[in-house]
Structure to design on (403 residues):
């Protein structure tokens, strides 16, 4: 019922592509993704190589600046991250105003937006010096903001960053250390956390990255643009899926662990149940990130000596699904979220904090896209068209005559 002759783009033709499923909204040199083959590369480097050999800090540098850092660049980047790790003392008081039950994603986005009130120079996005300072500030401070949110929600005192620790070690320290007992950061957990953050660091034009680019296209400062991205990630259809997987596994466990029953339910077109953590809009092959995360899950469970019945249910679900033609015909494989929640759970991270961990990982990707866009001399504000489906022109009737 839409009259498409009424839609004119500046070059004459307007495409109608709801959800932008077939529209390349930008050109980008950051991430290559081939969903048919199951290939993911950041700046040309395979996700497998980066997860195996790089740290999250190196990967962040790679995504943001386009090249892996030299030793000197790496050291100076890490130093800068350490120097910017503290929050303004006034910002600490913001946490007092939130209820203990606050969702940490709301705290995260509000705090990141608030950074622009303490560093108004971030507004000068076109100034490369200010831009660089803002990037490093945000990368470092998001970690502190997240750790303080964790402490707030647990009613524990804030633990300040310890600058001799690596990025991930410092995060674990700020989240889990208590003033009353010594806390030793476990290097194996640091390694797994590095991997998890690397695997989530970018995924080309997903919903939150597109949001960051759209907001940034108005030349909005980095803090405000990323705050919008955090809100987009919060949605259950996006970053919230790892939480949904754990909740599904808990439900299956509570129901006696009958995996086949849930596989049949997922296949039943009269039921709204879907196998959470299975399938992907772009991957029509095994998600390469899921393979790496599955191995990491074994390592964490071994290391912590944890026997989690949910892991066994997850393994059984995967095995049963992948030997069923319903799933293989539709190319439904485990995605990145299928095992990541189980690892976070084993590390003692609560379910409603999973998406915060995802935000920490995705931050360098968001920054890389915001920077790529602002540095593009041909950039323009994002402003899509629409197909108008409302009424034709009508005559206004004053309120007194409307009856
Ligand atoms: N369980 C059972 N059946 C499924 C599932 C699933 N998880 N996923 C897709 N299907 C079926 C659909 O019913 C459909 O079957 P049909 O052709 O017989 O009608 C077919 O597979 C194609 O599914 P679509 O919904 O068209 O696939 P789409 O690309 O739109 O959706 C999505 C992808 C949303 C990820 C979907 O697979 C899903 O809902 N998965 C579960 C939720 C999830 O894990 N989300 C996280 C994604 S990763 C991320 O965002 C970080």
């Amino acid at each position: 019922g839409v009259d498409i002759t009424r839609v004119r783009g500046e070059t004459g033709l307007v495409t109608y592509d709801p959800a932008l499923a077939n529209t390349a909204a930008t050109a980008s040199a950051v991430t290559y993704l081939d969903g048919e083959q199951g290939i993911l590369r950041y700046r040309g480097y395979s996700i497998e190589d980066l997860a195996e050999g790089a740290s999250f800090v190196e990967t962040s540098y790679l995504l943001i600046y386009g090249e892996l850092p030299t030793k000197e660049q790496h050291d100076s980047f890490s130093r800068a991250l350490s120097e910017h790790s503290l929050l303004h003392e006034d910002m600490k008081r913001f946490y007092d105003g939130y209820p203990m039950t606050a969702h940490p994603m709301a705290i995260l986005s509000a705090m990141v937006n608030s950074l622009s009130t303490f560093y108004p120079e971030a507004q000068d996005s076109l100034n490369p010096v200010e831009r660089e300072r803002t990037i490093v500030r945000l990368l470092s401070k998001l970690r502190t903001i997240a750790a303080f949110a964790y402490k707030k929600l647990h009613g524990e005192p804030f633990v300040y960053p310890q600058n001799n620790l690596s990025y991930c070690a410092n995060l674990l320290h700020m989240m889990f250390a208590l003033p009353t007992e010594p806390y030793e950061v476990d290097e194996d957990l640091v390694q797994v956390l590095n991997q998890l953050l690397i695997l989530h660091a970018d995924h080309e034009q997903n919903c939150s990255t597109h949001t960051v680019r759209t907001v940034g296209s108005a030349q909005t400062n980095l803090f405000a643009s990323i705050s919008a991205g955090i809100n987009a990630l919060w949605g259950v259809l996006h970053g919230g899926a790892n939480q949904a997987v754990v909740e599904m596994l808990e439900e299956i466990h509570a129901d006696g662990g009958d995996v086949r029953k849930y596989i049949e339910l997922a296949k039943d077109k009269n039921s709204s149940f879907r196998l959470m953590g299975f399938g992907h809009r772009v991957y029509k092959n095994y998600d390469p990130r899921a393979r790496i995360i599955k191995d990491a899950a074994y390592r964490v469970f071994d290391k912590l000596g944890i026997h989690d019945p949910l892991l066994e249910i997850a393994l059984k679900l995967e095995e049963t699904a992948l030997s069923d033609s319903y799933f293989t015909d539709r190319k439904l494989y485990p995605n990145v979220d299928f095992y990541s929640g189980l690892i976070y759970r084993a590390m003692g991270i609560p379910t409603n904090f999973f998406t915060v961990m995802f935000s920490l990982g995705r931050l360098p990707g968001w920054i890389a896209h915001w920077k790529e866009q602002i540095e593009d001399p041909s950039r323009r504000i994002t402003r899509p068209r629409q197909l108008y489906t409302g009424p034709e022109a009508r005559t206004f009737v004053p309120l007194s005559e409307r009856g």
